[in-house]
Amino acid sequence: MLAGNSIGKEFTVTTFGESHGKFVGVVVDGCPAGLALSEADIQIELDRRIPAEPKIVSARIEKDNAKILSGVFNGFTTGAPIAVMVENREVDSSNYDAIKDLPRPGHADYPARIKYGGFNDYRGGGRFSGRVTVALIMAGAIAKKLLSRFDVDVLAYTTAVGNIETDKKFSAEEIRMNKYAASTRCPDVACAEKMEQEIVNAKKEGESVGGIVECMALNVPVGVGEPMFDSLDADLAKALFNVPAVKGVEFGLGFEISELKGSESNDSYIMKGGEVATSSDNMGGILGGLSNGMPIIMRVAIKPTPSVGKEQKTVNLSTMKESKLTIKGRHDPCVVPKAVPAVESAVAVTLADHMVRSGFIPKVLERAK
Amino acid sequence: MLAGNSIGKEFTVTTFGESHGKFVGVVVDGCPAGLALSEADIQIELDRRIPAEPKIVSARIEKDNAKILSGVFNGFTTGAPIAVMVENREVDSSNYDAIKDLPRPGHADYPARIKYGGFNDYRGGGRFSGRVTVALIMAGAIAKKLLSRFDVDVLAYTTAVGNIETDKKFSAEEIRMNKYAASTRCPDVACAEKMEQEIVNAKKEGESVGGIVECMALNVPVGVGEPMFDSLDADLAKALFNVPAVKGVEFGLGFEISELKGSESNDSYIMKGGEVATSSDNMGGILGGLSNGMPIIMRVAIKPTPSVGKEQKTVNLSTMKESKLTIKGRHDPCVVPKAVPAVESAVAVTLADHMVRSGFIPKVLERAK
Amino acid sequence: MLAGNSIGKEFTVTTFGESHGKFVGVVVDGCPAGLALSEADIQIELDRRIPAEPKIVSARIEKDNAKILSGVFNGFTTGAPIAVMVENREVDSSNYDAIKDLPRPGHADYPARIKYGGFNDYRGGGRFSGRVTVALIMAGAIAKKLLSRFDVDVLAYTTAVGNIETDKKFSAEEIRMNKYAASTRCPDVACAEKMEQEIVNAKKEGESVGGIVECMALNVPVGVGEPMFDSLDADLAKALFNVPAVKGVEFGLGFEISELKGSESNDSYIMKGGEVATSSDNMGGILGGLSNGMPIIMRVAIKPTPSVGKEQKTVNLSTMKESKLTIKGRHDPCVVPKAVPAVESAVAVTLADHMVRSGFIPKVLERAK
Amino acid sequence: MLAGNSIGKEFTVTTFGESHGKFVGVVVDGCPAGLALSEADIQIELDRRIPAEPKIVSARIEKDNAKILSGVFNGFTTGAPIAVMVENREVDSSNYDAIKDLPRPGHADYPARIKYGGFNDYRGGGRFSGRVTVALIMAGAIAKKLLSRFDVDVLAYTTAVGNIETDKKFSAEEIRMNKYAASTRCPDVACAEKMEQEIVNAKKEGESVGGIVECMALNVPVGVGEPMFDSLDADLAKALFNVPAVKGVEFGLGFEISELKGSESNDSYIMKGGEVATSSDNMGGILGGLSNGMPIIMRVAIKPTPSVGKEQKTVNLSTMKESKLTIKGRHDPCVVPKAVPAVESAVAVTLADHMVRSGFIPKVLERAK
């Protein structure tokens, strides 16, 4: 488990595959037996990864078909490892050989080459490509199906693209209804269009833009998480930083909280509908690393795609001389829309793991008939 | 490893102890053999945890004496687990029994009670108290000693307390020289005094304040970290969110980067002193989850201490009725100064783990004579 | 990692697939970069799994074709996870539905049904079938290729089938030369024929037989293994007990050693060819859980195949009444020959893991040209 | 978790300490909250480790006093890590310095020195001493207390010492009543005396003897264990091989089963008292790595203590010349009696871990009043 390709201690996700290899896949081990699961459950999440609007995405149209290889029998999970895979099609590796020795700024090319002694598959970033989030999303689809059995819902959505930011707060209902309407996955429909324009503009200039993705997890029971090192926020943050291009993660009020007084930031306990609740949710639903029953609210900062059309400075690692680089090939001018399902999956996988670990989700969901 | 009290896959830290128990301790397993290590190496870090200035800290003066129980022989680590412990002294648990059923807002009291069925040691937050960072700091002292053998230096310091924020950038030299001069651990001496005053003011009002801690890791070699899930930033973030009161973590430009264009945010490769470097460090030294040889820069948001002197609303968990709570006892009006060594330790422990894992640090540092 | 389908802490093997599912596969994570690896390297081990002699094996001829899905680029491992898969063909599940409620004695049918609430794929034993050793053998092929780069050789061979036992000691050379000559994988050619006859006789009677497999690992350097819980013999034994049908494991003199005196059993240290060696190898190359440089010698007891042709007593788990069962379908009258490569793979995978963990095998084998 | 000093994935045991260090201790993490636990529960198992009969044990009388450092509050476990420690007293290290460069045959001295570059604490075997089983026994005491809440009982006892072997089968009642009566822990009272004489004779000759320890685990529910790699027998075997001096482990009929026919070895299913049972227990209660509800029966082979009084051949590792060695100091002529509680603890710790993992034991045993 040292090589970094697995996450989760009980609901464990192991991924494989490279951007320009033949397959990208995932093995989900530790999913309880008795969950209804089909390829369609996974396919729907994969399809949502690609916005319908071709103007804002890479020309590489990755229509991925999820294939379940094991772990499902008669329509239900069996308790055995679930392997799922997609084929990489329409791979065009021709652009990469020319720039093999020219690490792209902002990508993992340079440290990956050093780390693996030059044996890494460098084409399209190889193992470090955003392409491999497909594996995360397939695992996320399984995690979300499992969580939904326990009424837990995970909703990610865009709140900013470049300098366009929504200032609205959304209900779960609004998010569900509106997020897929817009290619930018922002539930504020008017703002979503401006965001789309921001991306189109960046593309025209050979530029790229970043943004902010927010995520809420609803109905998580009280007491999910562990003390000290496996606190729920720590494990969520770890998973979120694994989404490519994330440079910041915050919970509840996040960085803003540092300017408040204790009496302003504390969420008071109240009784609400016969249950303990808090009057506000400044903490984002997590106290001391444990869920407190309120919505868990996270926000991640996404950097602009490092692949830009403009000429950039780099170093030729073969000659060790400074050099110029112009990146060709197909690239997304903004990865925020694709980050939305990845964020959702990272959160879902972590919650599934913690809820199984904590005993909130049993090993067998029901007895087979 | 499911109960959350261990971190690190090869340099593994396991902690034990509660705020009002008899001991707080740590077992560090996987530290290479042949590292010179003494109790004094650990003691110095423990002493730095408590600012000399009594005005800004809790009245509980925790003079902790580190005792090494195992794993060191003739002044060197042996490769066996290193256990270190401090005794909890001057513990006054009298204030807690009265409020046993009244969970303190902003603390883990409520979710911990639910999670452990009421068996948790609730005194002073028990296992969820900031007190247990003593164990993290003892592990951090060992990690820092190990890293220093490989010229890696980890430096944390305060950049904001409440509304007082420094706008200076610091060299490593300035940080080392000035951070311990000020009780608030800010290397900007003038600003440090204002921060101190901010804390004193908060204390007078029965209030508390939060702040920002920044941390840099210097001389980390290229290629530390793993792909996909154990990326270096993900594991650093996980460790940082385990420091009590942290609500946000960012690397390099962090949240600001979401507003830049790709050509603005990318760090170009250049040759510098015969080595590959980057012309800026917007990425904070990490690309695709791997270190790129540049300084690793992190920032964490610390919330105001939830224990305030003012009366607060809560719920009596025995009667399930809304209630009032006034917290007595000794509390820090600002945990930022104590968070500084905890942040440093979290980073050091994570880097030590990843550098051992990646093979940058060997299992035996040298041959014994 | 709780669901049991992974082994190895650094060279980590995760398997998936069921006996009558579509695929059986494995993900090997943590294999160093720079190892020359092809599908042929894996295929040869798969082919050796099926003895040429059709008289002694199941009629199901599992000609498996290994397909590498990821982790190999330009003929070398990249450091990324290596996924390998075979398709299950010629699967005939018709016999199993009739006996769904009648657990076969000696198989995992009954406890598996209870454990998974009836959701487990029961066809052919599903996840508990000997079929899944195909995944172990594919991982073993990679481990053996890696070990061979460091001159470590792992050789398993049959020493007993039913009541036929060889009393010879074999050199590595003899084993390599003769083991594949005989369908029973015994390097004592004369004895191997008697073993074959023993199996043929058992088959005729609708019976099955067990046996003993011995394994030696040569050229393992001194000091492989860890203290206390991950001792080398403990981890080898764990892997060996995972080979289906194993009921006993011993090292060196094994159970016989309990009757000796200390002065008889101790292996004295001597100098041999300028190196420290021992005058005997009663300990089987392991002391205190660490390799001592001598050949590692293990022996495993294999039970008779539980699927016999004779009518057996069982309980109908639907009616909870005692019942009779006659197993149809294709079964091996003796799994010893198929256990040989599985034992070899279990040992190879464990040694590869420990040698990578201990730093004897580096993360990158060489620099790419 | 790579350095080998932890075992168990959910009920996790981490040990520390060396034979001639100051302390030996253990951290048990993942023990459910709500288990009544006191130092006396642990002390009784420690006391049983040392047979009352001084003739057959080392002169070093290790009266160990268990001290609980954390994790217990108001007499119950809290869910936080439980640290327990004993002080090493009456340590006499004077004999070891003289033989520092002369590795004792049969001990870990030589490979440990190589592995740790000479930094290991070599006194009395240091980390590799049988002394560290004290930590295992303290963990075992907690595991046994936990298991007893679920009616699971683990009973180990001696069946052979040197050439003296009992041929009786024992009921659980007989074992409980008689095993502690005899210093050799054999429930066959007449045979136990002969075993004692065998040890006394060996001691007189400056010799040592080994033996066989059997262990049964009763009332383990059906379905404990995992498929493939974490099968219950594999994990039990791993734990058993970690008991010092164990060279063989077998379940049920063990090695004998290799000579039977399938129809002879299979345990038929029957109905007994309204429950599914088997008519025999040749499999030792485990099928396909899962418990089947029958008693789990294991047997381990213990080698003669390698420390004998007679002069032995060794190599001086400083001069690399062959040399002679006479071991002084205090040694047990037979470790079988001390192995009995270690075996029991290894089994109890493994069962506790698997029963928590499988969900048979919940995270909180009851609600606190």
In short:
The structure is a homotetramer of 369-residue chains. Chain A has a five-stranded antiparallel β-sheet, covered by helices on one side.
List strands and helices in order, with pairings:
The structure is a homotetramer of 369-residue chains.
Chain A: E1 6-7, E2 12-17, E3 23-29, H1 39-49, E4 67-68, E5 72-73, E6 76-77, E7 82-87, H2 94-97, H3 109-115, H4 133-148, E8 153-161, E9 164-165, H5 172-178, H6 189-204, E10 211-218, H7 232-241, E11 246-251, H8 262-265, E12 269-272, E13 275-278, E14 286-287, E15 290-291, E16 296-302, E17 312-316, E18 321-325, H9 336-357
Antiparallel strand pairs in A: 1-2, 2-3, 3-7, 4-7, 5-6, 8-9, 8-10, 10-16, 11-16, 12-13, 14-15, 17-18
Helix pairs in contact in A: 1-4, 4-9, 7-9
Describe what you observe in this structure.
Four copies of one chain form a homotetramer. The first copy, chain A, has one domain (6-357): 4-Layer Sandwich (Chorismate synthase, AroC fold). Chain A contains nine helices and 18 strands. In chain A, strand 2 and strand 3 (23-29) form a beta hairpin. With 369 residues, chain A is an alpha+beta fold. Chains in contact: A-B, A-C, A-D, B-C, B-D, C-D. At the A-C interface, strand 2, strand 3, strand 6 and strand 7 of A face strand 2, strand 3, strand 6 and strand 7 of C.
